[in-house]
Amino acid sequence: METIKIGLVSVSDRAFNGVYQDQGIPALKDWLTMALKNPFICIEKLIPDEQDLIEKVLMDLVDIQKCDLILTTGGTGPYPRDVTPDATLNIADRIIPGFGEQMRQVSLHFVPTAILSRQVGVIRGNCLILNLPGRPKAIAETLSGVKTVDGQIKVHGIFAAVPLCIDAIGGPYIETHHQISETFRPKNFD
Protein backbone atom coordinates (compact mmCIF):
# COMPACT_ATOMS: atom_id res chain seq x y z
CA MET A 1 0.00 0.00 0.00
CA GLU A 2 1.13 3.49 -0.81
CA THR A 3 2.10 5.84 2.01
CA ILE A 4 -0.13 8.91 2.31
CA LYS A 5 1.32 12.30 3.24
CA ILE A 6 -1.18 14.24 5.32
CA GLY A 7 -0.97 17.81 6.58
CA LEU A 8 -2.75 18.43 9.88
CA VAL A 9 -3.31 22.11 10.66
CA SER A 10 -4.91 23.28 13.89
CA VAL A 11 -5.94 26.93 13.70
CA SER A 12 -6.49 28.42 17.14
CA ASP A 13 -5.26 31.62 18.78
CA ARG A 14 -5.77 30.20 22.26
CA ALA A 15 -4.07 26.84 21.66
CA PHE A 16 -1.20 28.57 19.82
CA ASN A 17 -0.73 30.96 22.78
CA GLY A 18 -0.84 28.13 25.33
CA VAL A 19 -4.18 29.07 26.92
CA TYR A 20 -5.16 25.42 26.46
CA GLN A 21 -3.64 22.37 24.83
CA ASP A 22 -4.56 21.72 21.22
CA GLN A 23 -6.98 18.82 20.87
CA GLY A 24 -7.59 19.07 17.12
CA ILE A 25 -4.40 17.46 15.82
CA PRO A 26 -4.48 14.57 18.33
CA ALA A 27 -8.15 13.92 17.44
CA LEU A 28 -7.33 13.89 13.71
CA LYS A 29 -4.37 11.53 14.21
CA ASP A 30 -6.43 9.17 16.38
CA TRP A 31 -9.20 9.02 13.79
CA LEU A 32 -6.81 8.50 10.87
CA THR A 33 -5.00 5.73 12.77
CA MET A 34 -8.31 3.89 13.25
CA ALA A 35 -9.64 4.53 9.74
CA LEU A 36 -6.73 4.13 7.33
CA LYS A 37 -5.27 0.84 6.17
CA ASN A 38 -2.46 2.68 4.38
CA PRO A 39 0.63 3.83 6.22
CA PHE A 40 0.67 7.61 6.57
CA ILE A 41 3.01 10.42 7.49
CA CYS A 42 1.69 13.56 9.20
CA ILE A 43 3.09 17.04 9.03
CA GLU A 44 1.59 18.95 11.95
CA LYS A 45 1.13 22.70 12.28
CA LEU A 46 -0.43 24.63 15.18
CA ILE A 47 -1.00 28.23 14.12
CA PRO A 48 -3.00 31.29 15.17
CA ASP A 49 -6.09 32.59 13.35
CA GLU A 50 -4.12 34.76 10.91
CA GLN A 51 -5.30 34.53 7.32
CA ASP A 52 -1.93 35.28 5.68
CA LEU A 53 -0.21 32.66 7.83
CA ILE A 54 -2.89 30.04 7.16
CA GLU A 55 -2.49 30.64 3.41
CA LYS A 56 1.31 30.33 3.62
CA VAL A 57 1.13 27.12 5.65
CA LEU A 58 -1.40 25.54 3.27
CA MET A 59 0.64 26.51 0.19
CA ASP A 60 3.81 25.11 1.78
CA LEU A 61 2.10 21.83 2.66
CA VAL A 62 0.85 21.43 -0.92
CA ASP A 63 3.57 23.01 -3.06
CA ILE A 64 6.72 22.18 -1.07
CA GLN A 65 5.84 19.29 1.27
CA LYS A 66 3.69 17.58 -1.43
CA CYS A 67 0.86 16.49 0.87
CA ASP A 68 -1.89 14.34 -0.65
CA LEU A 69 -4.47 15.48 1.90
CA ILE A 70 -4.67 18.39 4.34
CA LEU A 71 -7.14 18.46 7.20
CA THR A 72 -7.56 21.73 9.07
CA THR A 73 -9.40 22.08 12.35
CA GLY A 74 -10.80 25.26 13.84
CA GLY A 75 -11.56 28.74 12.62
CA THR A 76 -14.64 27.87 10.55
CA GLY A 77 -17.36 29.79 12.40
CA PRO A 78 -18.87 33.25 11.89
CA TYR A 79 -16.63 35.06 14.39
CA PRO A 80 -14.33 37.79 13.02
CA ARG A 81 -11.14 35.77 13.74
CA ASP A 82 -12.54 32.62 12.03
CA VAL A 83 -10.74 32.92 8.71
CA THR A 84 -9.70 29.34 7.88
CA PRO A 85 -12.25 28.96 5.03
CA ASP A 86 -11.29 32.37 3.61
CA ALA A 87 -7.61 31.41 3.55
CA THR A 88 -8.42 28.01 2.07
CA LEU A 89 -10.54 29.48 -0.71
CA ASN A 90 -7.83 32.05 -1.52
CA ILE A 91 -5.24 29.37 -2.30
CA ALA A 92 -7.61 26.91 -4.04
CA ASP A 93 -7.47 25.84 -7.67
CA ARG A 94 -10.98 24.36 -7.47
CA ILE A 95 -13.77 24.21 -4.91
CA ILE A 96 -15.72 21.03 -4.15
CA PRO A 97 -18.89 22.38 -2.48
CA GLY A 98 -20.23 18.95 -1.56
CA PHE A 99 -17.69 18.53 1.23
CA GLY A 100 -18.86 21.65 3.07
CA GLU A 101 -22.49 20.78 2.47
CA GLN A 102 -22.03 17.26 3.84
CA MET A 103 -20.08 18.44 6.89
CA ARG A 104 -22.96 20.72 7.82
CA GLN A 105 -25.48 17.94 7.12
CA VAL A 106 -23.67 15.59 9.52
CA SER A 107 -23.29 18.26 12.20
CA LEU A 108 -26.97 19.23 12.00
CA HIS A 109 -27.79 15.84 13.49
CA PHE A 110 -26.03 16.96 16.66
CA VAL A 111 -26.31 20.77 16.91
CA PRO A 112 -28.65 23.31 15.28
CA THR A 113 -25.80 25.83 15.06
CA ALA A 114 -24.11 23.72 12.36
CA ILE A 115 -25.67 26.08 9.82
CA LEU A 116 -23.20 28.72 11.04
CA SER A 117 -20.22 26.66 9.91
CA ARG A 118 -18.33 27.90 6.85
CA GLN A 119 -16.30 24.71 6.25
CA VAL A 120 -15.07 24.14 2.70
CA GLY A 121 -13.35 21.48 0.64
CA VAL A 122 -10.94 22.49 -2.13
CA ILE A 123 -8.27 21.16 -4.44
CA ARG A 124 -4.89 22.77 -4.89
CA GLY A 125 -2.61 20.93 -7.29
CA ASN A 126 -2.82 17.23 -6.42
CA CYS A 127 -4.00 17.83 -2.86
CA LEU A 128 -7.43 17.80 -1.24
CA ILE A 129 -7.86 20.34 1.57
CA LEU A 130 -10.76 20.01 4.02
CA ASN A 131 -11.73 22.40 6.82
CA LEU A 132 -13.07 20.44 9.79
CA PRO A 133 -14.67 21.61 13.03
CA GLY A 134 -12.52 22.25 16.08
CA ARG A 135 -14.01 19.93 18.71
CA PRO A 136 -12.62 16.35 18.75
CA LYS A 137 -16.09 14.75 18.93
CA ALA A 138 -17.28 16.86 15.96
CA ILE A 139 -14.15 15.93 13.98
CA ALA A 140 -14.91 12.21 14.33
CA GLU A 141 -18.60 12.72 13.57
CA THR A 142 -17.85 14.75 10.44
CA LEU A 143 -15.36 12.21 9.12
CA SER A 144 -17.31 9.04 10.04
CA GLY A 145 -20.90 10.22 9.64
CA VAL A 146 -24.06 9.43 11.58
CA LYS A 147 -24.91 5.82 12.34
CA THR A 148 -27.99 4.18 13.79
CA VAL A 149 -27.85 2.31 17.09
CA ASP A 150 -27.19 -0.94 15.22
CA GLY A 151 -24.30 0.61 13.23
CA GLN A 152 -26.08 1.28 9.92
CA ILE A 153 -25.11 4.45 8.07
CA LYS A 154 -27.73 7.15 8.48
CA VAL A 155 -25.69 10.03 7.00
CA HIS A 156 -22.37 9.42 5.27
CA GLY A 157 -19.31 11.07 6.71
CA ILE A 158 -17.14 13.05 4.35
CA PHE A 159 -14.26 10.58 4.41
CA ALA A 160 -16.36 8.10 2.39
CA ALA A 161 -15.65 10.32 -0.66
CA VAL A 162 -12.06 11.30 0.15
CA PRO A 163 -10.27 8.26 -1.38
CA LEU A 164 -12.07 8.59 -4.72
CA CYS A 165 -11.40 12.33 -4.82
CA ILE A 166 -7.70 11.77 -4.15
CA ASP A 167 -7.66 9.08 -6.87
CA ALA A 168 -9.23 11.55 -9.29
CA ILE A 169 -6.59 14.22 -8.68
CA GLY A 170 -3.65 11.83 -9.08
CA GLY A 171 -2.96 10.91 -5.47
CA PRO A 172 -2.33 7.53 -3.84
CA TYR A 173 -4.90 4.74 -3.66
CA ILE A 174 -6.39 4.93 -0.16
CA GLU A 175 -8.05 2.05 1.64
CA THR A 176 -10.01 2.34 4.89
CA HIS A 177 -11.31 0.09 7.64
CA HIS A 178 -15.00 -0.10 6.71
CA GLN A 179 -16.26 -0.14 10.30
CA ILE A 180 -14.81 3.37 10.77
CA SER A 181 -15.33 4.82 7.29
CA GLU A 182 -16.78 2.94 4.35
CA THR A 183 -14.94 4.08 1.21
CA PHE A 184 -17.16 4.49 -1.82
CA ARG A 185 -15.85 3.81 -5.31
CA PRO A 186 -17.95 2.99 -8.38
CA LYS A 187 -18.06 -0.78 -8.96
CA ASN A 188 -16.04 -0.62 -12.17
CA PHE A 189 -13.40 1.66 -10.62
CA ASP A 190 -11.28 -0.91 -8.74
From TrEMBL:
Coiled-coil parts of chain: none
Alphabetic keyword roster: ATP-binding, Molybdenum cofactor biosynthesis, Nucleotide-binding, Transferase
CDD domains per record: MogA_MoaB
Pathway: Cofactor biosynthesis; molybdopterin biosynthesis
Record domain MoaB/Mog: where: 7-153
GO molecular function: ATP binding; molybdopterin adenylyltransferase activity
Pfam families: MoCF_biosynth (PF00994)
Catalytic activity: molybdopterin + ATP + H(+) = adenylyl-molybdopterin + diphosphate
One example of a Gene Ontology biological process annotation: Mo-molybdopterin cofactor biosynthetic process
EC number: 2.7.7.75
Family, per entry: Belongs to the MoaB/Mog family.
Function: Catalyzes the adenylation of molybdopterin as part of the biosynthesis of the molybdenum-cofactor.
Protein name: Molybdopterin adenylyltransferase
Species in which this protein is naturally found: Acinetobacter equi
